[in-house]
Each structure stands twice: as structure tokens, then as C-alpha cells.
Amino acid sequence: MARRIRWQLAIALFGISVIVGLFGRLAALSASTDNPAIGGTYREAVIGSPSVPIPLLNDPITDPTGRVLISLLFDGLTRIGIDGLIEPALAEGYTVDATGEIYTFKLRSGLRWHDGTPITTDDVIFTVRTLQELETPGEPALANFWRTTLVERVDNRTVRFILSGPFAPFPALARMPILPAHLLRGIAPSEWPTGDFARRLIGSGPFRLAELRADAAILTANPTYYNGRPFLDQIELRFMATPEAAVAALLRGEVMGFAERWGTNLKTVDVPGEERRIVLPIDEYTTLTFNLRLPLFQEIPLRRALALGLNRDALIETVLNGLAQPIDTPLLPGTWADDPTIRRVPADPTVAAERLAELDFEPGSDGIRQRGAQRLSFSLLVDQDERRLAVATAIAEQWRAIGVEVTVESVESTTLVERLRKGDFMAAIHTWTRIGPDPDVYSLWHSSQSQGWSELCRSERWTDRHLARTSPIGTRIGCTGRTLPRVSTPMAGVVAGNNPLPTAVPHRQ
pTM to 2 decimals? Predict the structure, then answer.
């Protein structure tokens, strides 16, 4: 679950990741062929070693390698299918009652842990109740949700969840990996990372842990996996200290793949032999936010003029090397809720300048527009990530061309978050990460979900009203049963993009 902050949306851009490898990161990429080869070992370089590769305790932001291991070794009741939609995993299916508050899951028959022990609803209940009681969960927002959920055992294969209110994205949250109660019951979670379980990592996933070393993890195919034995016999994850070391291992043929965000180290890599580079999307986007508490940005025509003066396509090509995609609503492209016919008005600096003139902002002696004594000048807050900083600089240059003075202010990420929380900014660039498979925007954009970000939740009655609408057919989406509206705010313009992942893959026999 994304770490979420609330504020107004103005213009969004898109971040990007780059993958290089045989399958990219196997946990994220699925591929099929008519006659897939069976057997063999796949070796991939990953940056960093796992810190806490244990479900419930793992923080995917600070320990992504641990999360990679978890995704290969453990399963939840549901999973994300190759089409991006939620589908059954350990559960063979589920039902939801007419209120939208009671979900009943039934486990598949014959499920077993890697050590051969049967998987039952006792394991599901143990996992949920452990998460509810954890003092320091890896994902606090996820734990907060589950703490409001009642869980009941119906029988050995059936479990019931009673929610505090209708919540259509619940099946996506049921992807939470299930833990083996027979190995962990009676042991304090604080002892798990140093105990026997951390060395064995007995799960239910498609691969089993054969060996976990300081420099690598070796996984072998699970022959009793509910979805069939994996085609690969073995996966070896090599832990690398730096991207440069990973690229070097790739060039030497020590590994067959490497996934890298943005692909900085992969742009000029020429891997010996046959290779394949693939671009994949990830679930995040970057936005430029106006502080609507400021009188200047309360003028909708001004925000629209600024949007017209921002050429995102040119920005993506020149600053991000084409490794991004503009979007026009908070819905990521490729999700079932995205409507590709809703697209922005193209950038037009000439029209933008005309609109500013209509607002009585005329160029001064230095080219910067002003209205009376009011100079059209503001600061743009951004963290010190080199790409976001480059984007901020490019935006300032584009707006300078239409007579708008923008001063880029770069701060540490923690400072950025705190200033956003306090509303201490004029405009800011920030990123929503790990949005998840459900496209519902309620938890990101409704003011009731601000979680303490009250200074950024003003002037939202229009958005709240539309997010809270109920559809004619009564479909429920959102944590309070709201339906998903077509979002088109009367603010500057919504620009975001699906994060593509370029991937290069050397094929080896």
C-alpha cells in the first residue's frame, strides 16, 4: 500500500524504471510461449541483500530485495494476474455479500507448505491477527486497514472477513502473503528475523528456498505448487553492492539478467550474445502540485494557462530520454478504469501567453509578467532526486519562455515531505509510489483520507463531491463505498504517466 500524502493535483508527470534481464524481475513480469522450455537455472543480479525477507515485517521501500524473495516464496489468498487484474491464488475463489462488507474466501484443496504441512484457514487467521497486533509492521498503512477487519474461521478451508464498511479493493489487499502458523505460533515476531524461520523461509510460493547466503539466494522449483511446477528448475539471485557491479557481472556472463530503475547504467551496455530489452510499466506517477491556499493559484484560468505552457512530451523526450508517458487523469494507462479517449489539450505556449495577457499579466522590462505590482513569480519545491530536479529545471525554463518566473528549490526528501505536510510551499513536484493494482483514486484524492495532511486538503469540495457519487447501478469502489468517477478537475491539468521499464535480456542456453 502506497505511503500516501494528500494535496491538490495540478500537473503530473511520470517516473520510470528500467529492467535488464531474462525475464526482468520474475516477480513482476510474466511471459508465455507456445512451447516453453522446461528446466535450467536463471541467474539475476539484484542490488543489495535482503534485510527482512519475512512477510508482515518487510518494508518494500527500504528492503526491495527482501520483497523480491517474498514474492517468489510466499502466496496470498489472491494475486495479480498477467492482465493486471486480481485473481485467486491460495483461495480458489471468494464471495461478497450484498452489503459489500463481508467477504468469504475458500482455500484450494490440497495446499501444502514447502515442508509438506497442509495449509488451512488457521494459517490465514494467524497471519491476519499477527499483523493486527504488530507494533512495528513493515507496511503501517496495510496494518491499519487490517486492524479494523474481523476474521472468522468457518471451517478448515473457509474463512470470513467482516469489514467496517464497503471496500471494493479488499480482494487486492488479500494478496498479503500468508505465514505458516505451525512454525511461528508462540514465537514473538520480534524474534523471527534472528530465528530459524528467517534461515528457512518456509512458504507456499512457486519456489522454495534452498540456500540463503550473504552474496546470493538459491531457489528451487516447488513441485507441489497449486498452479503447477514452474518451468525453471532453479533461480539464483546474486546480491550486488552497486549497479556498476551488477552490470559488470552481466557483461562477464555471471548473471543472465539485471533490473534497474531508469536504466542509467544500462544505456550504453552492449551485452555479448543475444539479448532482449523490454520496457515495462510500474505503478507510480509524478505530479506538479499548486498550493491552492495561495490566492495566486486559486485563479483557475491562471492554472489552465500554465498547463498550456507546459510541453510534457518535449520534457519527457529531452529530460527523461523518452522513458516516461504523460497521463491526463490519476488513472494509470492500462488499468481497466482508464479511458484512453480522455486526453489533454495539447501544449500551446502562444495561447498560454494570450491567456496570461487576458488576466492582465503583461511582460515587464525583464520579460517576466506582472499585473500591477504583482509579479508572476513563484518557487517550485522538489527533492534532490536528479531526475525530478532536472524535470523541475526544465519546467522552469518552459514557463520562463511565456513570462513566468520559477525558482527551483531543492531540499532533502524528508524536508520535502514535512513542508508539504505543513503547506509550506507554492508549487511542488512529488511522486505517488506503489499505487497498487486497483485504480480507485478515493484514498489518494478524497480529503477524508488526508491522514493528517489537513493543510493540503482545502478547496476540495468539488473533488470530494464527485468522488463520493454513487453510480446508478450501485457499484461500490473506495473505502466508504464510493464509485469511481471520471476525474477531470477544474484545475490546471492532469498529467501523469505509466512508468515504463526498458529491459535487456541476454538469452543463454
Answer: 0.74
